[in-house]
Design brief:
With about 675 residues, the chain is of the alpha+beta class. Helices cover about 40% and strands about 15% of the residues. The chain is globular and about 75 Å long.
Length: about 675
């Protein structure tokens, strides 16, 4: 019997006694999620999804918009786009992101690929002005600036961004699969293949493992590579590089198929399969993965060993999250993790427990255990941990993690990393904190429900519904190319039937549902029936291509103490022009255009700012405990509105110089929108 099915059956027997089945389940009716059963869990799901869109109560992704590259930035105090920091958040949120966020994200990832190593390009200013090998990605980038190695610690001994490159390859491949555009895939594939070939230069064909030197890991620079007998540091077999690269190749193979490239797809599949076989060389007798293997045979990360006896979390939870290991090994890995309480002392997973004894720096100061890359918490990792929880039915672990995140979100302290073993912020002197990483657990909490496994021609849903939920409605779309998919479930247990827009759908088994792209209508409502339940029907919201009402000027804004009369008037004038522009774009037959979506977002940000002020005034929203924090939070809402609006205006002005007929047309609509108030 399939182990995952066995686990599910066991859970159901424990949590569904006759008394529970007889009880009328509670209900929850939220903005994005509704249903019956465990109302507390449903509320957490709704809150998690709210964090990805403008919201009067919670910080959200729009607050990380950067006009200078029309994309997303790591945070107000981190002026670039990092691979490892964005990894978990981007992967887990991709199915739900619509325009303009899909364009924002692509523009940010282009910072890596447009400036990727080519053997000639010089990186950032000294001391980071390295010339990287062809195909090498980076630690971080912004326009005209890229760092090909991890820049903290002792960069002069660091390796190139090995696992960074694998993670970037995975993220861009996943983005292309979600987009499902063969032409886009074909255009991007040369860059993706160059990155894969770069990683292949480190494969040991005898072991099918990959060599990486100091700081060649994703959560760098905690990894020192191989400390050789002469005291210098060289390359060792890094398990995380294997795991991340295997997951990346899973997706690259599908992108090749999407572009109609059969031979490269076959070749990369063979490389992936060989790399997966190589994992046996870094697997313990208990079934979990070690951190690294030195060329002399020394293993790092064998828990409890006298030397290097810590547990390394990332390659293990990633192997579960990305299905690099089978169900049986996934269970063994998680059982080991669950047996180590110190690995999750505050609800969030740490990168290691106990402290590393093999860094090239002593574990003190920033390197001290529990502070930074040695036992500090990183939300990019927690996003992937969430997927591991769901795959194995560990819903209470996922609930605990999301609840821990809310402890920071409610205080506008979405910081990373988290110090004191994940219990406190890294930058306490700031009045509020905001980082892209911090949205990862929320996005993972939502994606884990169905996993969303994208292929060249289909999307597979793998339901992992908490057993206390008897009805679930996702009132937001999942993206697959031009298709918008809404998902609902009824019942508890294995999949027993499926409907598509009310009619029967046959492509499913007890554990999954397969949706062929060509068989899906543009708006697809999928109802998954579990166990002995019956389909209840689900009417999904239709696409809304209208802007929110623009708030009036005047005393209604007085709650925004940081906003002057002139500032509010300026924001309102800009919003009214954006409203006119949006009306012209929609009237020209382009309601789904990126530019229209960007205009809607800017107006939404303004409307949300006003809504927040009203909620505070009316006592429906509790103010932050510190006046300086409250002022900074209010300021953030207005600044976000201004940046999102100005960024679009700057872009549309540039359209006037374009030779692209489509951009020229949209640019003309922008000029027409400049009419009188």
């Amino acid at each position: 019997m399939n182990i995952l099915k066995s686990l599910t059956a066991g859970v159901l027997l424990m949590v569904t006694p006759a008394a529970l089945l007889a009880a009328e389940p509670a209900s929850f009716d939220g903005r994005f999620v509704g249903g019956k059963g465990d109302a507390g869990y449903l509320r957490l799901l709704d809150t998690a999804r709210r964090m990805l869109t403008p919201d009067p109560e919670f910080q959200n992704l729009a607050m990380l918009y950067m006009p200078s590259w029309n994309g997303l930035v790591e945070g107000p105090t981190w002026d670039a786009w990092w691979i490892q920091n964005s990894y978990g958040t981007t992967y887990t949120s991709l199915p739900f992101l619509e325009e303009p966020f899909t364009t924002f994200l692509q523009n940010s990832q282009d910072l890596w690929f447009d400036q990727m190593g080519d053997g000639k390009r010089v990186g950032a200013e000294a001391p980071f002005n390295w010339v990287a090998p062809d195909g090498c990605l980076c630690d971080a980038a912004r326009p005209g600036w890229i760092v090909y190695r991890q820049g903290d610690g002792r960069p002069h001994i660091h390796d190139w961004g090995m696992e960074f490159t694998a993670a970037g390859l995975l993220l861009q491949s996943e983005l292309l699969l979600v987009r499902h555009d063969p032409l886009s895939a074909a255009r991007y594939l040369p860059k993706l293949e160059r990155s894969a070939q770069f990683i292949e230069t480190r494969r040991d064909p005898a072991r099918n493992l990959f060599l990486a030197g100091p700081a060649g890991n994703l959560l760098a620079p905690s990894y020192a590579g191989w400390k050789k007998p002469d005291g210098t540091y060289g390359q060792a077999y890094l398990t995380g590089l294997s795991v991340t690269y295997i997951a990346a190749l899973d997706r690259l193979v599908e992108v090749e198929k999407l572009a109609g490239r059969t031979e490269p797809a076959t070749r990369f599949a063979a490389l992936r399969d060989a790399a997966r076989q190589g994992l046996a060389g870094v697997t313990t007798d208990e079934g979990y993965l070690v951190r690294s293997l030195d060329p002399d045979g020394t293993r790092h990360g064998v828990f409890g060993a006298e030397k290097h006896g810590y547990f390394e979390a990332s390659p293990n939870h990633d192997a579960i999250a990305f299905r690099v290991v089978d169900d049986a090994q996934a269970v063994r890995i998680f059982d080991k993790m669950a047996s180590i309480p110190g690995l999750r002392p505050h609800g969030f997973v740490l990168p290691n427990y106990p402290s590393y004894d093999d860094m090239y720096e002593a574990p003190q100061g920033l390197w001290a255990f529990g502070t930074w890359v040695n036992g500090g918490h990183w939300s990019t990792c927690e996003a992937r941990m969430m997927l591991a929880y769901y795959r194995l039915g560990k819903h209470e672990d996922a609930r605990r993690s999301m609840t821990q995140l809310l402890g920071f979100a409610n205080r506008f302290r979405m910081d990373n990393p988290l110090v004191k073993f994940g219990s406190d912020v890294y930058q306490p002197a700031q009045p509020i904190n905001l980082t892209y990483d911090a949205f990862g657990p929320a996005a993972g909490f939502v994606r884990g429900l169905f996993e969303y496994l994208y292929h060249a021609d289909s999307l597979t849903l793998v339901p992992h519904i908490p057993p206390g939920i008897t009805r679930l409605e996702q009132r937001f779309p999942v993206r697959f190319g031009a298709k918008r998919i809404f998902v609902a479930t009824s019942g508890i247990g294995p999949v027993t039937s499926v409907t598509l827009n009310g009619g029967p759908w046959k492509s499913f088994d007890g554990a999954s549902v397969t949706l062929g792209y060509d068989q899906l209508p543009d708006n697809a409502v999928i109802e998954v029936v579990l166990g002995n339940a019956q389909p209840l029907g689900f009417t999904a919201p239709r696409p809304a291509f209208s802007t929110k009402p623009i708030p009036a000027n005047g005393d209604a804004w007085r709650g925004m103490k940081m906003a002057g009369t002139n500032e509010v008037a300026s924001l309102l004038r800009t919003a009214r022009r954006l409203e006119r522009f949006h009306r012209l774009v929609v009237g020209s037959g382009l309601p789904e255009a990126y530019e229209a979506a960007h205009a809607r977002l800017a107006i939404d940000c303004l409307s949300t700012s006003h809504q927040r002020m009203l909620m505070l005034e009316e006592g429906r929203l509790k103010p932050l405990s510190e006046p300086a924090s409250q002022a900074a939070a209010d300021r953030l809402y207005l600044d976000t509105t201004r940046k999102v609006s100005e960024g679009l205006a700057q872009l549309l002005e540039e359209y006037g110089k374009s030779t692209d007929p489509r951009k020229t047309k949209v640019g003309e609509l922008w000029q027409r929108s400049a009419g009188a108030e």
